[in-house]
Structure formats: structure tokens, C-alpha cells
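Below is the record:
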Amino acid sequence: MSRTLIIVVVIAIALGMYGCSSYNGLVEKDTQVEKSWANVQTQYQRRADLIPNLVRTVQGAANFEKSTLTAVIQARASATGINLNADQLTPENIQKFQAAQDQLSGSLSRLLAVAESYPQLRATQNFSELQAQLEGTENRITVARNDFNGVATSYNQSVRSFPNNIFAGIFGFSRKGLFEASQAAQSAPTVQF
């Protein structure tokens, strides 16, 4: 009987140690997802902060299309109105967040395209600097999103792998959503000369 008890105790200790190791590994990966999400939000906030300056600069150009400016302002309000913390990163919430950001990206693209028709606007130093900062920010957003997807994929793999999936279920670790290409990116643009 004592031999059986020793074997049971040794097995229980081994399982307990493995469980602690699995739990700590999941906590570490979850923390990395949180940090990566914060980096994504920082880049989107940087873009949101640049937009009012861009709009004010563009408003100074004579005869500029007010509807385009209004669309940018509304899209910015919509995009900044969706705030997710790391506990809310479900695939559905990521899609809602991404849809709002895609709407803002589209509005900004239209703004910059319309601005091409105004040579006096393109010639101003403020507009050129803001446009360069915005392009740089878009690149930073892409990098932050790619980094987030890498960290979230690693986390999701850990949460779904056996036997971690048992501990993930017990301790409430669930899959995180990923950024995906927008529907507009699924079809090639038409170029006409």
C-alpha cells in the first residue's frame, strides 16, 4: 500500500508541476498578446492624432470638397470609438475593430486622392509633412498588426495544443482574433489609361 501511495504522490506532483508550467507559459504568451495589442493601438492612435492636423491643413485650401473632409472626420470618430482591451480580442471584435479602421483608411485614401487635384495644397510644406507622417504611420500600423498576428498565433497554438488545452479551459484562456486582409484587398484594382 505504501508503494502505491508513493507512486500516486509522485504522479500527482509531476502533474502539478506540469500544470504550473503550462499555466505560467499561457500567462506569458497572454501577456505578450496584451503588449502586442497595446502596440497596435498606439499606432492607430498616432494616426488618429495626425488626422485633425491634416484636415485643418486641407481645409485651408480653397474650394476643397467638404464631403470628403466630413467623411474623414466621421470615420475617425467611428474608428476611435471602438476600444478593445486584451481580454476582448475575440475574432468578432477584431473584425469590428478592423472594419472601422478600414473605413478610416478608405476615407484617408479618398482625401489624399482628391488633394492631388489641388496643386497649391500639395505644394504646402505642412501638407507634405503630414502626408509623409501619415504614410510612415500606415507602415508602422502594418508592422504592429503583423507582430500582433505572430504573437496571437503562437498564443492560439498553445491554447489549442494538447495538453495545454486542458489547462487553458480550466483557467479561462481562450483564442484571440487575428487581423485579416480587408474585403477590398481581395480583388485587384482596375487600372485604366
Notes: Helices lie at 2-59, 66-81, 91-115, 119-122, 125-160, 164-171. The two ends are 88 Å apart (CA to CA). The first helix runs from residue 2 to 59. The mean pLDDT is 79.
